[in-house]
Please model this.
Amino acid sequence: MDYLRLTYFSIWLLLAISVLIIIFWIIKDSKKGNPEKLAKFLSKNRRWAFIAIVIVLILSFSISLIYYPYPQFKPKPVLYVSVVAERYAWYMNTTKIPSNVPVAFLVTSRDVNHDFGIYDEKGDLIAQVQAMPGYINELILTLKPGNYSVVCLEFCGPYHFAMLSSFEVIT
Amino acid sequence: MSEYNIKDLKISLILVSFVLSTFILAGSFGILMRTDQANLLSLDPTFFYTILTFHGLLNVVIFFLAPFFIARALLTRYVYVNQKITIISLILIVFGAFGTMFSLLAGNMALGWYFLYPIIFYDSTEEFRIIWDLSILSLGFGILLLALDNIRSIVKKYGFTKSLAWHYFKGNISEELPPIALISMVSSIATIFAAFAGAMVIIEFLGKDLLSNTPVFSAIYSVCTVVSNAMFGKIDPAGPDPLAMKNMTFMFGHTLANVSMFFMMAAVYEVMPYYSSRQWKTSKLVAIAWNLALIYVLLAMFHHLYMDFVQPLALQITGQIFSYVSPVPALLVTIFGALSQVYAHRATNQSFHMLPMYILTGIACWMIGGIAAIIDATVPANFLFHNTTWVDAHFHTYFGFGVSIMTIAMTWFILEKNFNRNSQHKIWLYAFIVLSIGWILHLSSFYLGGLLSIPRRFVSYIALPGNLPTIGSDLALISIIGGIAIGIAYLAIYITLMKNIFRIFKKG
Ligand code: HEM
Ligand SMILES: [Cu+2]
Ligand SMILES: [Cu+2]
Model:
């Protein structure tokens, strides 16, 4: 599995468990606790909590910038692949794509909104971009060799779930 | 007997009865969808997406309305709200809600709850589309009226700047503003933005159908199109622009979903002191927090368009910054405050009332769902989680579980403290346990689905790559068990509440 996805999930899980621990602590401790003391404690430490949260958020924000998927943050592509979505099919000008070089998928739609989702062989979603009528979204990727599935990830009508395709990345 | 206006409380109880009853149908559709996704049934795809739309749209609407009406009724302790407007709005809203249900089901309208333009012109027939448009407008108009009257009645008593607690910034607290008034003010202003954005979208829908027939309407339509296109950088009067429409749609949808929790918090600030015997007043920090909330709730909406790479980069970054700002005031002020309130309740009372426990759970849901939302509001995370069931996971946590359990708590508060209905039954404890287990199962299936790349809104996972077909259906199975537990607990609560509400109205 993509380590970035696992990281994000773990952060959520850790924080969610912390919330539950706080809740249980409140239920347990409040039985004999002193609400005045708690209120004082909270207001005294609010400033530190504030500083800590702000630092964490600024750090996460800065780190996230490295991983932005937008073309401005990506190397210049050596090849362009056109992708056109139309209920319920994907039209690509090639389904054989070279590996290990940046390739730009130019994605658009002829009817409603779709989403060009790319899954690897193990069934991990590795990339996606919306396919919007009237616009061309540029998704630049450097892929490893293998077979990839295309899955529509924006609800586009009753057969949305069957709007699948595939392509191959070759050495 | 009661510090609140009894008639306004009763109106809110009527609305709540409507909400709780509608949820029985909408929630059953949720379980039905999971049964299909687990391959235990095979529903017709159009039917599946019709009930998906029904479930999503109706649930969002009713769990916005419940806190909205409850907060308004509780506001009557401090200000006079216009009861006629409440009744007119209630009629418009119920009328609109039934129209929406009818057109969706009878017209097989499969749109998804936020009906992204132009899908409505592909999957519905003109007659049903127009009924649907008008129903949504009726709903929106009712909501707009109430929001405007909330603002009018608060401003009339406190004045505009003092209604937003700006005098607290300078440390002047001689004139007190109750938190419920401040938060209702902020939420109502945000609601107005949402209502206008929503109305613009619907008018553009209507315009496309009625353009040739009605010259007056075509003028309104053109204005809306030009304005909404121009707001998002497209000067093009030719017709709705899909990107502009998507921005407008989320200005509506995102705001509505967030404001639901805001109105609920307004009620929580008001109600908790009855149980904690501790005041919970507006302070400088509370004032700052809720004024900030107004800004970030409107600007965070751009996180819904991260996967539209053509959206200007500045807006993408704006979306992430304001999504990141949101937890700071919410956590440090409102959540800290609420947790100390619950703590105080428990410390000063020998027995633990289940009602603060319900509220505490709602707050935990707000936090856990909110954390999931902030992660998803990080562009590279969104690249991996967008439109997987992670999305379903986060809003079912804070909205599905959180707002609904607090709606139950608030209804219970109104019955117990204002109509002297004795509701200290064991049922609240047992229902709570079953409900929580149910939601944990149901939510886990969505969160794990997000981790494992299960796409949202899929009739069947069978054609997906790798071992997603089995993972998807297994998770759906877990979810069905959870859904049934939720259903059982919910019915017990529903019967208890409705029996009491019914008695109140029978007594007159
Ligand atoms: C018994 C409880 C519930 C169950 C079993 C349930 C189940 C579901 C399911 C299966 C979906 C579709 C998931 C997918 O994308 O594949 C869904 C979507 C949704 N649910 Fe629920 N849900 C429940 C309660 C709620 C509540 C209380 C809300 C309140 C806000 C809610 C709001 C939504 C929304 C907004 C959607 C998205 C609809 C769309 O994608 O257009 N649900 N739910
Ligand atoms: Cu599609
Ligand atoms: Cu699709």
Remarks:
- Chain B has a mean pLDDT of 92.
- Chain B touches chain A through 79 residues (CB under 8 Å).
